[in-house]
Amino acid sequence: MDIDGVEESSRQVQVRFVTKLNPPYKAPSSSLAIPTNITRLRLSNIVNNILEAGVDDWQYQPFDFLIDGRFLRTSLEDFLLSKGISAERVIEIEYIKVVAPRREDISLHDDWVSAVDGSNEGYILTGCYDGLGRIWKDAGTCTHVLEGHTGPITSVCVIKPKVESAFDQLLATASKDRSLRLWKFDAGESAQPKKIRAFKILKGHNAAVQSIAAQPSGDMVCSGSWDSAINLWQANGSDAGGDIVSVKKRKKGPRDAEPQSEREAVSSLVGHTQCVSSVIWPQHETIYSASWDHSIRRWDVETGKDSLNMFCGKAINCLDIGGESSTLIAAGGSDPTIRIWDPRKPGKYDPIFQLSQHNSWISSCKWHNKSWFHLVSASYDGKVMIWDLRTTFALHVIDSHKNKVLCADWWKDDSWSDQGMNILHGSPRQI
């Protein structure tokens, strides 16, 4: 069958549109003839015309298209030729909704925004070079200020974010002042902004702390430092596994009701020879780390030994674990390329993907929690990019910053399917 609105072409191909979307987004399964020089925009118009014929109040929906699991980013003819796909058969073209980042208001800070955590859909946690952590109910609305660090905050972490109660939410921050701090706050409080101080100070590193991550259970946190060590700390209320060094007392005030205690590390993981720039704790007994010594390591928490030591050839700034079966390693560092490895593959550890559209060092990369394909990255080139592993080109480029972007994260994962993506990204004085 031919379809109205498609001009005649000397070369045509039979296609069938398929989708995993639910009605009213399902097109009839019959095939139709289209010209091979057609591009994505015109394909989207065709699908909308088909769907509009069966829905009275249809509203235009942009679509993306995949053939054999790969995104169509050229003309149909060029794609078929590059993949060696015969135009003599009926080509199945899968269509999905175009998902674009949603524009949010700016949240202003007093200095460079160095860290962000969007893992709790009820609030955003940020760290800043002014030494303060901040909790945001939504873009532009700061509800709590975390006071106490004497140097710039380098990393922030929500501990066990999916708790049912809003009371006693646990947070961790790390700083160039060589310490970590643990915080409790009530997410239901409406005071704007309320100043709070840490209930626990974790000291033991000999240099600036660069990265922190929480155990999935929320019992412990780990930290990577410029002293080349990874320290493990108790995060819950238990006093087991570390010594209470001292109790700090300050001038009495309403926010000083709970005493502060200083704690030492439970244990250390030693092996890196330069700054440990990133730590991830994806499973109870497994920690991943990246370093400026060009290596990525996987550690067994119980034994303290590394079971993977992968040399990458570049100083690494950021690391995350996700993708297919939550096993792929994504990392970026001292060049414009994001590299992705699959540690399940035997033999040499060559990247299975290399994403190279940034123009400067990669500062942050983060997998989407509910998609095997999607990754967000930030760079010193001032850009944030959203990637899909089914194409080598960035799906979206956010170019709203005028300087380096130091951090990025997803927020409100449930919005992925229907309403677009909430992307958090931090740069000088704003997120």
TrEMBL record:
GO cellular component terms attached to this protein's record: nucleolus; nucleoplasm; preribosome, large subunit precursor
SUPFAM superfamilies, alphabetized: WD40 repeat-like
GO molecular function: ribonucleoprotein complex binding
Classification via HAMAP family: WDR12
Main location: nucleus
Pfam families per the UniProt record, alphabetical: NLE, WD40
GO biological process: maturation of 5.8S rRNA from tricistronic rRNA transcript (SSU-rRNA, 5.8S rRNA, LSU-rRNA); maturation of LSU-rRNA from tricistronic rRNA transcript (SSU-rRNA, 5.8S rRNA, LSU-rRNA)
Protein family membership: Belongs to the WD repeat WDR12/YTM1 family.
Span of the signal peptide: none
InterPro entries referenced in this protein's UniProt entry, alphabetically: NLE (IPR012972), WD40/YVTN_repeat-like_dom_sf (IPR015943), WD40_PAC1 (IPR020472), WD40_repeat_CS (IPR019775), WD40_repeat_dom_sf (IPR036322), WD40_rpt (IPR001680), WDR12/Ytm1 (IPR028599)
PROSITE patterns assigned to the protein according to its UniProt record, in alphabetical order: WD_REPEATS_1, WD_REPEATS_2, WD_REPEATS_REGION
Repeat as UniProt keyword: yes
Role summary: Required for maturation of ribosomal RNAs and formation of the large ribosomal subunit.
WD repeats mapped onto the chain: 146-193, 202-234, 269-309, 324-342, 355-397
Keywords from the named record: Nucleus, Repeat, Ribosome biogenesis, rRNA processing, WD repeat
Annotated NLE domain residues: 13-80
Cellular localization per UniProt: Nucleus, Nucleolus; Nucleus, Nucleoplasm
Species of provenance: Fraxinus pennsylvanica
Gene3D superfamilies: YVTN repeat-like/Quinoprotein amine dehydrogenase
Name listed for the protein in its UniProt record: Ribosome biogenesis protein WDR12 homolog
Top-level taxonomic group: Eukaryota
